[in-house]
Description:
- This protein is of the alpha+beta class.
- It folds into 2 domains: 2-90, no CATH class; 92-173, no CATH class.
- Helices cover 63% and strands 13% of the residues.
- The chain contains 4 helices and 4 strands.
- The chain has a 4-stranded antiparallel β-sheet with strand order 1-2-3-4.
- It is rod-shaped.
Amino acid sequence: MKKVIYIGISTATFVALFYVVPLFYIGLEFLLLPFMLIVLTAGIVGVVTIPLTAYKVYKSQRISNWLNWLNGLAIGAYFGYLITIPILDWDEEQRNLSGILVSEHLEEYRNKNGTYPTELSDLQVAQLNKKLPNTYQLDRFSYFVKENEYALDIPIPITDRWHWNREEQKWEYE
């Protein structure tokens, strides 16, 4: 039973770190992805192995070592995913705050100069970065101007991105 607890705590910690670390070190999630797939598989298999273990304990049968490992991974995956709910909520709040701040500065720039800046570096970068959350500094954004309209994105490595919806004042996953 101790082994299941140790494996479960280790797995839950790993799952939580899988979501926290890439917020600060972009692209790291791809290095951790193979391990995360193992944890996900163990979580799926845990639906079968945990009741099987409970049945074996009830019948006073011996529990094999691999069953203990799978149960520990599955329980850790479940708790780890529960831990990530507040982490993901916090990240969404930080992302939305940064989008609101950057879009406000872009609108102020447009009101002063008549057009949007051609690059984000035309804004007062040092001053704006002090207001922005550490995980979403100005260098993390992708910005384009077209016909007096702007597009603000947060690129996600490989093919995804968060796109700023100016009307709803929130990020949309694309």
